[in-house]
Specification:
Blueprint lengths: L5 H4 L2 E4 L15 H6 L1 H7 L3 E4 L27 H13 L3 E6 L9 H8 L11 E2 L20 E4 L4 E4 L14 H17 L3 E4 L41 H14 L3 E4 L5 H4 L13 E2 L11 H14 L7 E3 L8 H5 L1 H13 L3 E5 L19 H5 L42 H5 L5 H14 L1 H5 L1 E4 L6 E8 L2 E8 L5 E4 L5 E6 L11 E4 L4 E6 L2
Parallel strand pairs: 1-2, 1-11, 2-3, 3-7, 7-8, 8-9, 10-11
Antiparallel strand pairs: 4-6, 5-6, 12-13, 13-14, 14-18, 15-17, 16-18
Bound molecules: alpha-D-glucopyranose (GLC) and magnesium ion.
């Protein structure tokens, strides 16, 4: 076995830049703020940061609407600030991943301005322009992920353009070679500056069916779900030609020793194709969102893990995600006590974990009053529970005003319990979520079995989830009680020494039967 690469052994930490650390008092986080917090991330023990988009943007979708792929939005800083942040990260052994948004631009990107200026514009075909349907109206039934038709009428030029998200986010035409070439230059621009990789936004959306046929109705849609789920995105996403795009990006990444992570929300069976093939590798890590949508039951999760492990193509490296800037926080989904078990799960499965900022504090979704709503998804389809502001609230650093996040009014409210739930307070409390997370990260570093060893399911019943990680002669056993009552696990043969538990100091060496307290997870090492 060849030695594992940094992106295989390491842990990625997602920074939502608006909410991490503000340095200039405008209530919005920025690059100098992130730079000031690198030592905190080193203390925690992560290996890389992925920063959500920081490029110039009208912020209709908070940076996922890019107006210039090769600049920095003034709200976040300057290119010089970015270079300084990158150098400071590298000096500390931290890698930096940026967020590439290649599926769509901002409507204010000069490419789109030129494209929309006239039907004869040389950039007309850079976007997806179509005539009305024969009887009038949008060209087909495709629905925007943020509600309403995915087609916007442009009266001046007399055609519709396609936008999978907001109408301020027109989709690029990735069948046009000029678009491909332009975006590959963007990759090179950042790789040449020293960036260690990209998370690629909505990769599975990038190519649409060439004939733009209607999407089929979704028989499972019911009132209360967002409108875009009324149809299955069969023809608007996940087309076979997308893999050639991933392969082209991968070739450039490989030239620079960089890593690509793809955002893909698909059933695992379809996800695997995004690893590509031996001849045409795709992204290194197609995001695995199995745990984000999972019912929190040991048997169901055990099944998902085994299925995912079983489907991985030869040589493919797994990865795991518990939270991100689009989904409710894990502590809200599974509860405060189980959030500790979930963190142990994330950091002991085989594969690269991505840790969402604030989850190491046990932050929960923050209730957002109607007048505080910022997310366009919530504004377009209020009250469905799909708004993303609650999981994007500011990080809490210490007990100073606004939790040390900003000297100004934060752009979203802090969690109410920030005076206790902040980095400084939790660092001082060995029983805290922050200390548990640091302990797990240290354990990964100390044990190759956790960082890169093989994964083997261990038979368990009821609410207990158990597996082994093996490397050479080393065997680590992870036993997680996903329930609120006591539980037992029949141990495999041998004596096991507890290394870390979610519930206080590790106990005595055990053999035969392991008792687990309510909501307890434990990592044990088999004695030689
Ligand atoms: C991705 C991002 C999300 C954004 C969308 C459109 O899903 O994670 O935040 O709104 O793409 O760019
Ligand atoms: Mg700021």
């Amino acid at each position: 076995m060849t030695e594992a690469a940094w992106w295989q052994r390491g842990v990625i930490y997602q920074v939502y830049p608006r909410s991490f650390q503000d340095s200039d008092g405008d209530g919005v986080g920025d690059l100098r703020g992130i730079a000031a917090r690198l030592d905190d991330l080193v203390a925690l023990g992560v290996d890389a940061i992925w920063i959500s988009p920081i490029f110039p943007s009208p912020m209709a979708d908070f940076g996922y609407d890019v107006a210039d792929y090769c600049g920095i939005d003034p709200r976040f800083g300057t290119l010089a600030d970015f270079d300084a942040l990158l150098a400071a990260a590298h000096a500390r052994g931290l890698r930096v991943l940026l967020d590439l948004v290649p599926n769509h631009t901002s409507e204010q990107h000069p490419w789109f301005a030129e494209s929309r200026s006239a039907r004869t514009s040389p950039k007309r075909d850079w976007y997806l322009w179509r005539d009305p349907a024969p009887g009038g109206g949008p060209p087909n039934n495709w629905i925007s992920d943020f509600g309403g038709s995915a087609w916007e009428w442009d009266a001046a030029s007399g055609q519709y353009y396609y936008h999978a998200y907001l109408k301020q986010q027109p989709d690029l035409n990735w069948r046009n070679p000029a678009v491909r070439a332009a975006m590959m230059e963007v990759l090179r621009f950042w790789f040449d500056r020293g960036v260690d990789g990209f998370r690629i936004d909505v990769l599975w959306h990038m190519i649409k069916h060439a004939g733009f046929p209607d999407n089929p109705a979704n028989p499972d849609w019911r009132p209360g779900l967002p409108e875009f789920l009324k149809v299955l995105q069969t023809n608007s996403t996940d087309q076979p030609e997308v893999h050639a795009i991933a392969a082209a990006m991968r070739a450039i990444a490989d030239e620079h020793g960089a890593v690509l992570v793809g955002e893909i929300y698909l059933p695992v069976e379809r996800l695997m194709a995004y690893y590509g093939s031996a001849e045409a590798p795709g992204v290194h890590l197609p995001f695995n969102f199995q745990l984000i949508g999972a019912d929190w039951h040991a048997r169901k999760i055990a099944h998902r893990i085994a299925k995912y492990e079983g489907l991985l193509p030869p040589g493919a490296w797994p990865n795991w995600v518990l939270g991100n800037h689009d989904r409710p926080r894990v502590a809200t989904r599974v509860g405060a006590r189980q959030a500790r078990v979930a963190m142990m799960l994330l950091l002991t499965l085989r594969g690269t974990p991505t840790l969402y900022y604030g989850d190491e504090l046990g932050m929960e979704d923050v209730p957002i009053a109607p007048e505080q709503v910022r997310d366009p998804r919530e504004i377009n389809e209020p009250g469905l529970g799909w708004g993303r502001d609650p999981c994007r609230t500011p990080m809490a650093w210490d007990g100073s005003p606004n939790a040390g996040f900003s000297t100004g009014e934060p752009w979203l409210p802090l969690h109410a319990d920030w005076p206790a739930r902040n980095v400084a307070a939790e660092r001082a409390d060995p029983a805290s979520m922050w200390c548990l997370t640091r302990g797990l990260l240290a354990l990964r570093r100390a044990h190759p079995a956790l960082a890169s060893g093989s994964w083997h399911g261990v038979a368990a019943e009821g609410d207990v989830l158990a597996y082994e990680r093996r490397h050479g002669d080393a065997r680590l056993l992870v036993a997680l009680n996903l329930g609120g009552g006591e539980a037992v696990l029949a141990l495999p043969e041998g004596r096991f020494r507890p290394l870390l538990t979610t519930a206080g100091p590790p106990g005595e060496t055990v053999e035969g039967m392991l008792s687990l307290r309510a909501d307890e997870g434990v990592v044990l090492a088999r004695e030689p």
